[in-house]
Amino acid sequence: MRVGMAGLGVMGSAMARNLAGAGYLAGVWNRTGHRAEALADELGVPRAETPAALAQACDGVITCVSADDDLCEVVDAMRPGLRAGHVLVDTSTVGAATAEALADELAAREVAFIDAPVTGGAEGAAAGTLQVMAGGDATALARVRPALEAIGSQVTHFGPSGFGQRAKAVNQVLAAGMVQAISEALAFADASGLDTEQLLPVLGQGAVGSRLLERRGARMLAEDFEPGFRMALHEKDLRLSQALLQSLEVNLPMVEMTLKHYERLMAQGHGDEDMTALYRLKRELFRTGNRRSL
Questions:
Q1: Catalytic residue flag (residue 236)
Q2: Please, what CATH class does the domain formed by 166-285 belong to?
Q3: Which of 242, 30, 214 is nearest to 124 (CA)?
Q4: For 40-91, what is each residue's pLDDT tens digit?
Q5: Which region holds residue 110: left if phi is over 0, alpha if psi is between -120 and 50, else beta?
Q6: Yes or no: is domain 3-160 CATH 1.20.1250.20?
Q7: Residue extent(s) of CATH 1.10.1040.10 domains in the chain
Q8: What gap in Å lies between CA 198 and CA 187, rounded to an integer?
Q9: Confidence class for position 228, pLDDT limits 50, 70, 90
């Protein structure tokens, strides 16, 4: 299968490299042309001038963009190049309703749409070990599964259109809980005078060990918030989770609290930092004169 990659940010570029390594990549497109040109030269594939040209040259296209409006814009621009039998796979995190609407619209043209958000961060994208959460037609997914297995270590089909996004919403709620717990605990450890270099391996090897703690714990303590996953994007994702929760007539306190904290940090200019910059607020709790609840 000849696959095009549209959207070449940190995640999309890494996916493109893994697709090229597996022999599936047939072209790339990005809104910022110089980034697409540089990656096309690196990988020895064509740079499409437009999304429609990319679709026309491929059997399927994988998209990776930031938000619902971006995805709708790219798909709209791609329509002239789509033909019956095409499979469009979106790895972005967008609303389940957006995924369902696009699937219905494209089905009328005999084009399959798979919502396939991923988890694993920039490290997982680079290593090709992302977890792919898919919703949509099972037959169409089977066609693109070999390409998806080039970017992820596991591809799981959760059901019809929108169910990949529902799974990702659950993932993002869990991520919020983890970043809350880890940032609070490490701020507590540091304020207690513990040797955190000694403590981190103990925590990581025990029952509370996690990939987030392993990959970000030391960096949080060092106040290194170089983004693996930007806070502004996690905030956007939690808004999508919040919308699904509200459709169930439920508000989860942890989601609401994390959104409140992110809003405060983003207002201070930290939105482009890693989501673990939440540690900034937790650290302040232990500073003299600021011992109050967030």
A1: no
A2: mainly alpha
A3: 214
A4: 999 999 999 999 999 999 999 999 999 999 999 999 999 999 999 999 999 9
A5: left
A6: no
A7: 166-285
A8: 15
A9: confident
Phi, psi of 198 (to 5 degrees): -75, -35
Which residue out of 168, 236, 260, 282 is catalytically annotated?
Answer: 168
State the CB neighbour count (10 A cutoff) for residue 117.
Answer: 26
**Which tens digits make up the pLDDT trace of 160-172?**
999 999 999 999 9
| In contact, 178 and 254? CB cutoff 8 Å | no
- Here the tokens at position 268 are 């201070």
The DSSP H or E segment spanning 178 is helix 163-191
Q: Which whole-number Å values give the CA distances from 149 to 15, 66, 130, 154, 265, in the listed order?
A: 11, 22, 9, 7, 36
Distance in Å from the first CA to the final CA of the chain: 51
Does residue 64 contact residue 5 with C-beta atoms inside 8 Å? Answer: yes
Please list, in sequence order, all residues whose beta carbon lies within 8 angstroms of the beta carbon of residue 47, skipping any fewer than 6 positions away. Answer: 27, 28, 29, 33, 36, 37, 39, 40
pTM of the model: 0.93
CA-nearest of 186, 178, 201, 185 to 275 is: 178
Q: To which residue do tokens 């000694």 refer?
A: 198
**Residue 292's pLDDT is what?**
58
pLDDT digits (tens, 9 = 90+) for 170-221: 999 999 999 999 999 999 999 999 999 999 999 999 999 999 999 999 999 9
Whether the pLDDT of residue 291 is over 80: the answer is no
Pinpoint the residues of the chain covered by CATH 3.40.50.720.
3-160
